[in-house]
Amino acid sequence: MQYVKLGSTGLDVSRICLGCMTYGVPDRGTHEWTLDEDAARPLIRQALEAGITFFDTANVYSDGTSEEIVGKALRDFARRDEIVIATKVHGRMRPGPNGAGLSRKAIMTEIDHSLARLGTDYVDLYQIHRFDPDTPVEETMEALHDLVKAGKVRYIGASSMYAWQFSKMQYTALLHGWTTFVSMQNHYNLLYREEEREMLPLCADLGVGVLPWSPLARGRLTRDWGTTTGRSATDAFGSTLYLEGDRAVVETVTRIAQERGVPRAQVALAWLLHQDTVTAPIVGASKPQHITDAVAAVELRLTEKQIEELQAPYTPHPVAGH
Ligand SMILES: NC(=O)c1ccc[n+]([C@@H]2O[C@H](COP(=O)([O-])OP(=O)(O)OC[C@H]3O[C@@H](n4cnc5c(N)ncnc54)[C@H](OP(=O)(O)O)[C@@H]3O)[C@@H](O)[C@H]2O)c1
């Protein structure tokens, strides 16, 4: 495994981050395709044994049970000082007032609930899951800064939003001397490259690390077009993200994977790892082979020609995943 600094911080992270949205109690929350604790633990252990030290979850994943499962497994299998735990705040955790969003009240409440579920006294990377148009940016940024100063959070990050929103938040923090975001977790893969227009150049300019979510387009880049799995059949959000025109990219991934004699997932992840802005793709793993492939992708060198061929059939997409 390779380790790199997250953006312009001194924090070491593995070049693969394990996406823990895959782990959670299936009948809690909105992801009925998740793996329960017994199925999740061996995969988390395998990831650690392969050198993965970076784990991403969220308060909303499976109604908090992802944080519970991941926190317990990491307590059992890892040394807290070595690993980097990332979680998120913004999504709705309860019906009624103040059950979602980025108000000072919601952030202060949700960090304590996440810490309790994770069974740790600090989160390494606390990310806002989306932009909250109903809360002043100053209120959110000061609350996040206060969490850092209180020792509950080491670094702060953000996830999918428009570049102007991210820029506004970042410069608001700078103007006030508050903690700034060190990372952007956004939707970026061979099928969805809209982030190359504004967000990725902004992150490069600001020295912000990029953590692509759904780097395999939720599995579409790993198999023949139209093939369904247990997850894809029930992944309602995933079904909104991609277009028929993406098939040509998947076919190119297939051809290059055959030429290289490796599984398609390795080619698709290697392409992301070749992008200068990308720190660590956040890979979803529901089987041991998924972790094996993700780790192998770190060492797979693509030629300039292969990179050009992978990019050539791209079809522009409407903004998706904000
Ligand atoms: N910030 C956000 O808004 C946001 C949104 C989405 C995700 N995320 C984060 O990103 C993480 C990853 O998301 P994701 O699960 O959608 O990512 P993904 O890596 O694009 O998709 C994972 C799926 O791809 C298939 N797969 C993975 N490796 C494979 C391999 N080697 N061979 C064949 N198939 C393979 C599996 O599908 P099957 O299970 O169907 O076989 C797996 O469940 C999440 O866990 C979460 O931490 C964040």
UniProtKB/TrEMBL annotation:
One term of GO molecular function: oxidoreductase activity
Keyword ATP-binding applies: no
InterPro entries per record: AKR, AKR_Detox_Biosynth, NAD(P)_OxRdtase_dom_sf, NADP_OxRdtase_dom
One Pfam family hit: Aldo_ket_red
Leading EC class: oxidoreductase
Lineage, broadest ranks: Bacteria, Bacillati, Actinomycetota, Actinomycetes, Kitasatosporales
EC nos: 1.1.1.-
SUPFAM superfamilies, alphabetized: NAD(P)-linked oxidoreductase (SSF51430)
Alphabetic keyword roster: Oxidoreductase
Record carries keyword Oxidoreductase: yes
Domain NADP-dependent oxidoreductase residue range list: 15-312
Designated name of the protein: Aldo/keto reductase
